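Audit log entry. Action: structure prediction of a protein-small molecule complex. Ligand: guanosine-5'-triphosphate. The ligand was supplied as SMILES and no pocket hint was given, so placement is left entirely to the predictor. Protonation state taken as written. Sequence taken verbatim from the request; no trimming, no tag removal. Recorded inputs:
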Amino acid sequence: MLDAFSILTEGGIVLWSRTFVPISSRIINSLICDKFIESHSGDKSFTKDSYSVKYELANELGLIFVVVYQSLLQLSFIDDLLENVKRMFLKLYGTELKKNKGPLPECKFDYYFDKKLEELEEFGRIRPTPVTKVDALPTPEQKYEENHTNSVELTPTQALERLRLRHSAPRRGGRRGGSRKISPFESPAQSSGDEAIKPGKKPAKKMRKWAVDGAMQDEDDDNKPLDFSEGNTSSINTSSANQMVDHSREWGSTTNGEFVLKDLGEDDDFTASILDATADDKTIESFGFFKSFIGGKQISTESLQPALEKMREHLMKKNVAKGIADHLCESVEKILIDQKTGNFQTIKNKVRQTMQDSLRRILTPGSTIDVLREIRQVRRELRPFAISFVGVNGVGKSTNLSKVAFFLLQNKLKILIAACDTFRSGAVEQLRVHVSNLKELTEREGGRIELFDRGYGKDAATIAKDAVDFATKEDFDVVLIDTAGRRHSDQRLMGSLEKFASLAKPDLILMVAEALVGTDSVAQAQNFNNALGTNRRLDGFVISKCDTVGDMVGTMISMVADVYGSEETGR
Ligand SMILES: Nc1nc2c(ncn2[C@@H]2O[C@H](COP(=O)(O)OP(=O)(O)OP(=O)(O)O)[C@@H](O)[C@H]2O)c(=O)[nH]1
């Protein structure tokens, strides 16, 4: 979920860094310029482009700890991470850095960092920090008193807060803190010893362990169900779906009684619009890179290179992966080389047409997906058609599953939604709300939609298979399977996808990916594709959150080109 974490000296030397997604050096540069050179505000966070940047200082050694992540993400553990990483790093390398302020050739900090990150992420997923109204918050003094009189179980944030307050609060006699050594892996709550959790008080809750297949692994006697969804349906407000929707709006056109969506093939302007989106107004207006090619000259490879280089950079800024940008530039080069330039208009049109043709070839699927026709075919075998949605955390799997459900309900199909995200708390309830709203919206159309859930902590592949069996018995037409979000680099969770694919045997596996994810999209798609095993691959992509990226729509070109390959790219 993070994009990068770096530890720098104030002089700009990178002592250690971890990059999950390549980010522009502009982000760190703007930290140095905006925060340390131009402004000296106390706020240790800012946003740049679509990124949030937070940092911590270790003034005694002149170190800066910086974390970069997508602004859209609400990551509750960032402050804890910065604080913990700073503490661990100073503990491990502080003495060495006091002697020598230069780089650390033997810096093997990855292991400690990964472990802490994993720990905090896991903790944040299971126990999200509650939101409290600002005016309901106690004053620092009240909080200090409260923390010292009540026996409460602390979240990492609360523990840190307690530690800060303890050190900032006026001394009331007695010893402040202790001199006990702190291991780099201890959280402040643990390390604060007598300050955080007193003997005889409720012990800190252990983190839940998860098995490789996604099922909950009971630790000690922890057999308590993680499912809090039962009996909670009454609190879900489902009465407003119809009021929220504008019924005067046309939802789509109907041909032969089918509710259909516009197909890529029917839209002649689609690739042109992608092209327009991957270029900005100025580029489209003039194809400025090729301005110098005017008037009856022979175009050579050398003369073309500067323009192609600019075009490549431009495409990459629009989120097109480098390999694909290279390829698009090569296509343009092939067309133009050794040609005699006509007037500027001719060059511009040629480049534009070449790019448009290349994009069309990349985006045209090798085999068409006519879902309604495929559903009808599968129904002849007296079984339901199963579609599963996979992807990293928070990309919009449940939201897009619900949009697909709406489309299928318009076609009067009977839908069973299988809640197979047994991991994230709230995932089942979220689907229940969608189902309830969809029922209300489509009850007049004659479709049917139900939720199949088995709560939390159970094996997702088995639930998916049970849902398909149930749908077969109950004569549902389609099963839509929601799955848990997983980081594509997380081998443990990715490993369970192969079992999922072979047990549930979905007819269609769609990967949901955010348009804003940038060049990491290619690695994400490849890892998901590979994780399905040798006998299965992704059938397609749903690119979500296009509304958040404006014209940076290159992600969809990169993902399709890289995973499916095409004659166009030769992959
Ligand atoms: N702006 C925008 N937000 C979206 C879009 N699709 C989904 N979201 C939002 O993204 C957030 C996550 O969506 P979910 O559907 O819960 O994502 P998910 O992949 O199921 O999440 P996990 O189960 O946690 O992995 C929600 O707040 C959605 O409202 C979209 O197309 N545009």
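Audit: result stored. Residues 391, 393-399, 421, 424, 427, 485, 544-545, 547-548 surround guanosine-5'-triphosphate (CB under 6 Å). The chain has a mean pLDDT of 71.
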